[in-house]
Amino acid sequence: MVRRFLQILLSCLVIVGYPAFALADEAGSAALTPLNLTGHWVGYLAIAIFAFAYVLAMLEEVTELRKSKPMVLAASLIWAFISVIYVADGMSALSGQAFRTALEGFAELFLFIMVSMAYLNAMEDRGIFENLRIWLLSKSFSYRQLFWITGWMSFFLSSVCNNLTTALLMGAVVLAMGKSNKRFVSIACVNIVVATNAGGSFSPFGDITTLLVWQKGVVPFGSFYSLLVPAMVNFALPAALMHFWVPKEQPAAAIEEPQMKRGGITMIVLFLLTIITAVCFENFLHLPPAAGMLMGLTYLKFFSYYLQKTPGQTALLNADDIDMPPDLIKKQDFDVFEKVAHLEWDTLLFFYGVMMSVAGLSFIGYLGFASNFLYDQIDPTVANILVGIFSAFIDNGTIMYAVLTMHPDISQGQWLLVTLTAGVGGSLLAIGSAAGVGLMGQAKGLYTFSSHLKWMPVILVGYFGSIGIHFLLNQRFF
């Protein structure tokens, strides 16, 4: 009984951060077998380093220490200690190849996210998101209407934008409309977090989890959209139950003059074209999606050159401005490299630290135990549901990378299931996703950990409802 308990406990620890790394040496240069260091002092020390660094990252709001700092240091120390052992045994080529293989995976992810963030920053600079917010504020919607509008908009926007950007945009609308009604702001923020996480789970571009799965190649691009209906259920069920607690009043409409800089609509079109390019590179040319995204970045770069070389106006929505004297018309001030410089570098480096740390811990030798228990000794469906629950406590990108690293022999239906559960499981707690953490900072005192926690039973209804719908509609994948 005690042994069984310890087995389950250790498997839980492994799935949240210590999966093994399947070394892929395509060139066949390394004929040696990796050392099993699970019982070695290096293995224990690496686990302690990773755990301590991850705790510091989770406490970022308290310590005010950027989460990337402890994670990058942890990755460096883990691989340094591993290399000490392999160099001493004359196997340095093997550890070096393992590090480069892991680094290649991160590089593809980094380049993909870099281009996406550059486009989002550019569109924000053009005032696209601000115009959306002003439009919603000008329509005099009731609280209940705004609850559903911001929810569905969050759902669909997060399928192409990252969930943090979407949550902050919709959160700004909710805060502006619900200044005098704290109850509305609290429940609307919960709804936005659930919607953004659900919306990102059915699109390869919507969340770090789906992006990792797509880049790994275990689920084809088109198959992700079979999760659309389960994802809609995941959002709609909790929203329908929370609807009755949303105030019926109508807030006062705010009147602001919309301002959009020149080129905003064109950038939206170029971003969609970039996504299409990435899909074509992967599906037809069998090149990494990051290669297509980098080609798409050149679309934005050439367009920025056009804006810099041609005269334009900052805003084109005010008819009186069109007849401005020529000496008042300025060249459009836009630099694509400035948008790249303002990326979320802390987030990108955090993912480097996580992925390289997990790869190092995996290379030490935890694959056999974790994979055997989670996907052989218990049912894969139960294992994948547990993965989703774990993602409420640990970053879902880390969870998904752990599962992909173990690479269990499961059907495509089960891969889709774990993609869904890891994506939406973060909605169970406010700290389970970037959207929740971001909104807690934006709506301090109105949306908190405890205010989200009281709706967890309702969110669980949507969680298990989406799983049931997936099995009902996607039987062909199992």
Automatic annotation (TrEMBL):
Q: Where is the Citrate transporter-like domain?
A: 54-423
Any one GO BP annotation for this protein: sodium ion transport
- Give the bilayer topology: Multi-pass membrane protein
List residues traversing the bilayer: 40-59, 71-88, 100-120, 155-177, 184-203, 223-245, 265-284, 349-369, 381-403, 415-435, 455-473
Q: Does the keyword Ligase apply?
A: no
Q: Per the record, what is one GO cellular component?
A: membrane
Which keywords, in A-to-Z order, does the entry hold?
Answer: Antiport, Ion transport, Membrane, Signal, Sodium, Sodium transport, Transmembrane, Transmembrane helix, Transport
Question: Where in the sequence is the signal peptide annotated?
Answer: 1-24
Q: Which domain of life is it from?
A: Bacteria
Q: Which InterPro entries match?
A: Cit_transptr-like_dom, NhaD-like
Its annotated compartments are: Membrane
* Entries under NCBIfam families matching the protein: NhaD_1
Q: What's the protein here called?
A: Sodium:proton antiporter
Q: Which organism is it from?
A: Methylovulum psychrotolerans
